[in-house]
């Protein structure tokens, strides 16, 4: 099963933060970057949720907010007032903790200084730590970020390569991912 859905195709695509389940074994795995590639890391039942990053958001007909999330998931949220669109709490590059199917929001992890982040691309792929600084660039996604890594070092990468995985501490485990 991939993200709570039975998959029969052996070439079915999977990506970062997808959940692989083998019901006969009672085993669950989260796909995370590791050493420049992706690896499946075993998780407990308490971690059976998805973290989806807000890639884009749009106001659509009927005063609804469409969130385009990582993993090809889209959500429509009702806005009660046109002013809600400007005051929306969900920002691009924030992460949403959702159920396995990505249909119900359980928590909102804001991209902010002090957030715990995972680097999902580039030469530092798989590194994680606390977001220390964002140096603005002309395009927001190309902004330089500095992360205090879990081993105490400083990692520099671009904002587009960062995935929020917690507030001060990660809400997912990184067994073997350093």
Give the secondary structure arrangement, pairings included:
Elements: E1 19-22, E2 27-34, E3 37-43, E4 50-60, E5 64-69, E6 74-78, E7 95-98, E8 105-109, E9 116-119, E10 128-135, E11 144-149, E12 154-158, E13 162-166
Antiparallel strand pairs: 1-2, 2-3, 4-5, 4-7, 5-6, 7-8, 9-10, 9-13, 10-11, 11-12
How are the strands of the biggest sheet laid out side by side? 6-5-4-7-8
- Give the biggest sheet: 5 strands, antiparallel
Overall geometry comes to globular
CATH class label of the largest domain: Mainly Beta
The CATH architecture of the largest domain can be named as Beta Barrel
Explain what you see.
This protein has 178 residues and is an all-beta fold. It folds into three domains: 1-47, no CATH class; 50-107, Ribosomal protein S4, central domain (OB fold (Dihydrolipoamide Acetyltransferase, E2P)); 116-166, SH3 type barrels, CATH 2.30.30. The protein contains no helices and 13 strands. It has strands at 19-22, 27-34, 37-43, 50-60, 64-69, 74-78, 95-98, 105-109, 116-119, 128-135, 144-149, 154-158, 162-166. The radius of gyration is 17 Å and the shape is globular. The model has no long low-confidence stretch (mean pLDDT 88).
Short description:
The chain is mostly beta strands and 178 residues long. The protein is built from no helices and 13 strands.
What characteristics describe this protein?
178 residues; mainly beta; OB fold (Dihydrolipoamide Acetyltransferase, E2P); SH3 type barrels; 3 domains; 5-stranded antiparallel β-sheet; 0% helix
